[in-house]
Amino acid sequence: MKLIGWSMWFLEFVSLRRNWAKDEATLKAAYNRLRDYPRPFWMVLFVEGTRFTEAKLLAAQEYARANGLQVPKHVLIPKTKGFVSAVQHMRTFVPALYDFTVAVPKTSESPTMSSLLNGKSAEVHLHIRRYNLNDLPKEDGEIANFCRELFMEKDKLLDDYFRVGSFDESLYRPSRRTQSSLWITMGWMLLMALWFLAMGIWALMTGALTGKTIGIVIAIPVLLGLLLKAMMLSTRADLSSSNRRAKRQQQVIAQQEMAELRNVGEGAENHAHAE
User: Fold this and answer.
1) Domain that holds residue 74
2) Transmembrane ranges (predicted)?
3) For the whole model, what pTM was predicted?
């Protein structure tokens, strides 16, 4: 979606190709830009490299079993190259790493772009831990292990959360809702309303309010609504190409397991006949 891509570009997202030979240079250039950034900043890393779905969780569990790793219940296997690169290049000018674990109660619907735009609220719990970046290991392999262990801790944290219904209550800190975003939104809505009012007055005074003009005025919000719906569909994790690949992998694994079971059954039957 072009509009989403433009928005990411203006917000200075770092675009990657999932090819480390090319992405390494891209990331280093991004770190160098941040070193001299004139204002305080946050750099967000989604170490899983993809959005969470049940199909991807099953694929991650199969990968963990095949590679002798601890099998997760609630998180995906982290991709550590980008994390290691960020820690090694940014520890000289970034003071801290914040680990966010996000949980949605089973009684609450998970927030989506569609639900947010429809005005639906959602209950979301955050567990946040702070690490001094200079306290992290120095070697690449040790940093990668730190990241994997962190995700296993997150998995246990989520396991306890879904069992009890909350994170450790002793760590709870209520957050105050700020009004800045509300005032900004109201300001833009007021400006748009004044613009439409001015255009309406102009059309009435000049005689430009014709059937064609009315049709255009009606068509514009309809087209914008359809575009917005298409953009919202593009954000759904269950419709992503990586999720479809994960489902296909699960189907292949299931077929292989069924074939192995049939072979075992046929072998046992042949053995019985031989006796």
Assistant:
1) 42-171
2) 182-203, 209-228
3) 0.71
